Amino acid sequence: MTNSDAGKKKGKNLNYLRAANQAGAIKILSTSGPVSRQALARRLGLTRMSITYIVNQLMEKGIVTQVFNERQRTVPAGENKLNLGRKPILVGICPDSLHAIGTYISRYSVQSAICNLAGDVKAKAKQALPKTTTKKSLLAIITKQIDALLQQHDALHIIGIGVASIGLISTETGTVTITTDFDHIENLSLKAILEERYSLPTFVVNDMKAAALAEHFYGAAKEYTDFVYLGVTNGVGAGVVINGKLFEGSEGFSSEIGHTSIQRHGGKCTCGNTGCAELYVSVPRILQKADCEDWETLLCQAERGDAKACRILNQMCKDLSVLLVNIANAFDPQAIVIGHEGAQLGRKYFDKLQKNLDERTITRNLKHIEVLPSTVGQNIDSLGSSAVAFSQLFQGHLKI
């Protein structure tokens, strides 16, 4: 290698490192709120000089601003405590400096939204999907929604498009390969189609993985680097975050936890397996057993002490506990966050799940794994899909 080649390689590596550090600073400030430069440097493992350079760059771009917290009376944890009377000057994100478009595709509807760095939904549109939905009609709805959002908010800085969809998703190619809920939607190359139309980087993942990102950035899993998001809804799915990053598997087909068996001699699932978790803990199955029209009604009946509702939800918790133990033993997470309709189970049932997990995991005498309800709430679809794009920004893969 010539000196010239070595210099180019060093320069390339240095530029990559700077971009990664800059992205790390944006992630911390977007998801954790204002912090001092000293705390930011410590979390990123940088020197004071390096963090000053990064913060100044971000301030010049209008992404970061200086914040003085008038209400602060004590020094934040880890700060210099010699001058207790001095209020630290913090730096914070300018949430509306960058935005992402998020599109969520379920069997019953398509929803697109614009979200900012802080996870605020600025605008959204939703349309129902008929049973006869085809590739062509689905694409027409998606592009119509995105077209309208871009036209109505053309002054915003959009960094990219995130798509969260049901089904098996090839994240590398951004393709919806197959879904058991759609008869005519398979091998749909959303990434290629949307990038060609909008000239914006586009990223496509499974809807539960997107929900895990939303929970990591804006919800109950903010403080965890290793956790599993378990979505209990029309089906059962998961998103696994390891060391702060989404676990994809070799091609993006990982984390189909709803199609792992919890009953050896159980019923036949649509996936071809037997005894799948979806057959025992998904919302439609539970409502069918309870002969109840909707989830909220069932929960209300159980809260009033209805014997049948209580019995069915107690059995659901037993079955769900088997799945939680399998997850804990397989991934060794710090926490398992239960989301979508599952988050509404209530403290009584979460206590049961926690107790069962504490008693049955192989590491029960070594560590405690938290079982938590999702805190993202009704915006999970918008935040999840937009978080797909923001996750690329936070990893330094997008230019700003």
List the helices and strands and how they pair.
Blueprint: H1 3-32, E1 35-36, H2 37-44, H3 48-60, E2 64-68, E3 89-93, E4 99-105, E5 109-116, E6 121-128, H4 135-152, E7 158-165, E8 168-170, E9 175-178, E10 188-189, H5 190-198, E11 202-206, H6 207-218, E12 227-232, E13 236-242, E14 245-246, H7 278-281, H8 283-290, H9 295-303, H10 307-331, E15 335-339, H11 347-360, E16 370-373, H12 380-394
Parallel strand pairs: 4-7, 7-11, 12-15, 15-16
Antiparallel strand pairs: 1-3, 2-3, 4-5, 5-6, 8-9, 9-10, 12-13, 13-14
Summarize this structure as a short list of keywords or feature phrases.
single chain, 400 residues, alpha/beta, Arc Repressor Mutant, subunit A, Nucleotidyltransferase, domain 5, five-stranded mixed sheet, 12 helices, globular, disordered N terminus
How would you describe this protein?
The protein has 400 residues and is an alpha/beta fold. The chain has 12 helices and 16 strands. Residues 3-12 have low confidence and may be disordered. Strands 6-5-4-7-11 form a 5-stranded mixed β-sheet, sandwiched between helices. The protein is globular, with a radius of gyration of 23 Å. The longest helix has 30 residues, at 3-32. It starts with a helix and ends in a 6-residue tail after the last helix. Strand 12 and strand 13 form a beta hairpin. It has 3 domains: 3-93, Winged helix-like DNA-binding domain superfamily/Winged helix DNA-binding domain (Arc Repressor Mutant, subunit A); 98-211 and 380-394, ATPase, nucleotide binding domain (Nucleotidyltransferase, domain 5); 220-375, Nucleotidyltransferase, domain 5 (2-Layer Sandwich), CATH 3.30.420. The protein is 41% helix and 20% strand.
